[in-house]
């Protein structure tokens, strides 16, 4: 990584009109899990603007290839082969290097490998459904996987999740910590999903839909979807008007 | 028209969902052989770590006082001298034997979480006053649309807590105890209440 000075300024405030509110009755589980009192605002202290950094040594050779990372030797996961790539940026448009990105998903039939999962679609013996990577010096990342299937879930009597991949992202400060989901361009299921609909702003939803990128397909192998992830930006250091200790 | 600021908007959050364990703690969820260990699992402490050993234990309760059995909890804290192990820590160098970050799922049967760590030192507030020792918490789960941030302070730090710039500016004093972990011996109990009379104070950080 380049030898750049670490940033020590607080983050931009989070726009809570843009994110889903805590209480979203259309997504029933939120009803009893949503704090009801106002959050207390806390402008970034060292506790919020610092965060853990993960080294490339934690990443295994196949951690960013879900097609093979759980498969038996010589075998592969079943499904539409795709490359997911993009950049982790912050709100200033600056790439976030060294960011740990974790992802997990259902298999091609919409089934998760989890004890509490009961959907009748079968498990794929060669698909675990998770991986991770660390962004390069420009914030870039990629992984190979199969396109997950949609699946029904117990909320309304006929609610379905659109095909999606879960993302967990670490930036450079604990206040940037984010979990979100990636959806696929052209999927009509996106707009009828109660979890998607927790997001009040249509443009915020569009920001979670990965674009099909035919320029970056791997010929005769896999199509590409581009998904950029935006983390909170950081204030500029114009004046050092803070007292010692920050 | 004026010039454009060209800021991007943060990606909107979506719930971690019921299967967050697959991605973040696969070995815990029974999927072995891909990652050697789950990131952030195990003790934060080794033989050389400086500081007082403690175990933080607790549950996350929903509005019906039922413990969540699918929550994922992350902590981030300073070392015993009050330094964070982070490039953005510019005041000094943190204990190289203390990473400061960990994550644990609640037990699938009971919901209880536990962290083996050390008691952190004091970290300065923005104006230089010292904040009382505290551990930063981040909680995600099915039904939580945007990760929740709170802090755990320590019941054996009454004087420091009284002088803490965050605790002392909370208007509703009756809520302050929701941020205090109760210390008994080496164990600090910190229960998190998502709703109800004892709803934990959550921060917009």
Automatic annotation (TrEMBL), chain A:
The keyword Oxidoreductase applies. It holds the Pfam family PCDO_beta_N. It comes from the Bacteria. SUPFAM superfamilies: Aromatic compound dioxygenase. Residues 84-112 form the Intradiol ring-cleavage dioxygenases domain. Coiled coil: none annotated. One of its GO terms (molecular function) is ferric iron binding. Keywords: Dioxygenase, Oxidoreductase. GO terms for biological process: 3,4-dihydroxybenzoate catabolic process. Gene3D superfamilies: Aromatic compound dioxygenase. Belongs to the intradiol ring-cleavage dioxygenase family. This is Protocatechuate 3,4-dioxygenase beta subunit. It comes from Xaviernesmea oryzae. The lineage of its organism: Bacteria, Pseudomonadati, Pseudomonadota, Alphaproteobacteria, Hyphomicrobiales.
UniProtKB/TrEMBL annotation, chain B:
SUPFAM superfamilies: Aromatic compound dioxygenase. Residues 43-195 form the Intradiol ring-cleavage dioxygenases domain. Pfam families: Dioxygenase_C. Keywords: Dioxygenase, Oxidoreductase. The keyword Oxidoreductase applies. GO terms for molecular function: ferric iron binding; protocatechuate 3,4-dioxygenase activity. The keyword Cytoplasm does not apply. NCBIfam families: protocat_alph. Belongs to the intradiol ring-cleavage dioxygenase family. This is Protocatechuate 3,4-dioxygenase alpha subunit. It comes from Xaviernesmea oryzae.
């Amino acid at each position: 990584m380049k030898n750049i000075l670490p940033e020590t300024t607080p983050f931009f405030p989070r726009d809570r009109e843009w994110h889903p509110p805590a209480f979203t009755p259309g997504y029933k589980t939120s009803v009893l899990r949503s704090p009801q009192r106002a959050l207390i605002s806390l402008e970034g202290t060292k506790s919020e603007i610092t965060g853990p950094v993960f080294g490339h040594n934690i990443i295994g050779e196949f951690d960013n290839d879900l097609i093979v990372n759980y498969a038996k030797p010589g075998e592969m996961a079943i499904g539409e082969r795709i490359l997911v790539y993009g950049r982790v940026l912050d709100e200033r448009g600056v790439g976030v290097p060294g960011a740990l990105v974790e992802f997990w998903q259902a298999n091609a039939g919409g089934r998760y490998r989890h004890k509490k999962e009961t959907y009748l679609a079968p498990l794929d013996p060669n698909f675990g459904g998770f991986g991770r990577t660390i962004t390069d010096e420009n914030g870039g990342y990629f992984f190979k996987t199969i396109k997950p299937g949609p699946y029904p879930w117990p909320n309304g009597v006929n609610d379905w999740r659109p095909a999606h991949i879960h993302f967990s992202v670490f930036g450079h400060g604990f206040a940037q910590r984010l979990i979100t989901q990636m959806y696929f361009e052209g999927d009509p299921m996106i707009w009828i999903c109660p979890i998607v609909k927790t997001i009040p702003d249509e443009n915020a939803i569009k920001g979670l839909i990965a674009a099909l990128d035919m320029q970056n397909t791997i010929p005769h192998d896999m199509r590409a979807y581009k998904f950029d992830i935006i983390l909170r930006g950081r204030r500029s250091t114009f004046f050092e008007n803070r007292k010692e200790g920050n | 028209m004026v010039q454009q600021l060209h800021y991007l908007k943060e990606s909107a959050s979506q719930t971690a969902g019921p299967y967050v364990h697959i991605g973040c703690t696969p070995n815990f969820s029974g999927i072995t052989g891909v990652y050697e260990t789950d990131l952030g699992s195990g003790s934060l402490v080794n033989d050389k770590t400086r500081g007082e050993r403690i175990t933080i234990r607790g549950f996350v309760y929903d509005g019906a006082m039922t413990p969540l059995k699918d929550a994922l909890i992350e902590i981030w804290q300073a070392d015993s001298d009050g330094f964070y192990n982070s490039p953005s820590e510019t005041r000094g160098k943190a204990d190289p034997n203390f990473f400061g970050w960990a994550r644990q799922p609640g037990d699938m049967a009971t919901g209880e979480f536990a962290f083996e760590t050390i008691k952190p030192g004091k970290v300065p507030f923005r104006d230089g006053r010292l904040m009382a020792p505290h551990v930063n918490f981040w909680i995600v789960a099915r039904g939580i649309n945007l990760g929740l941030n709170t802090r755990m302070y320590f019941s054996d730090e009454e004087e420091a807590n009284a002088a803490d710039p965050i605790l002392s500016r909370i208007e509703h004093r009756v809520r302050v105890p929701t941020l205090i972990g109760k210390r008994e011996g080496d164990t600090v109990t910190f229960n998190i209440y998502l709703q109800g009379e004892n709803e934990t104070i959550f921060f917009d950080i």
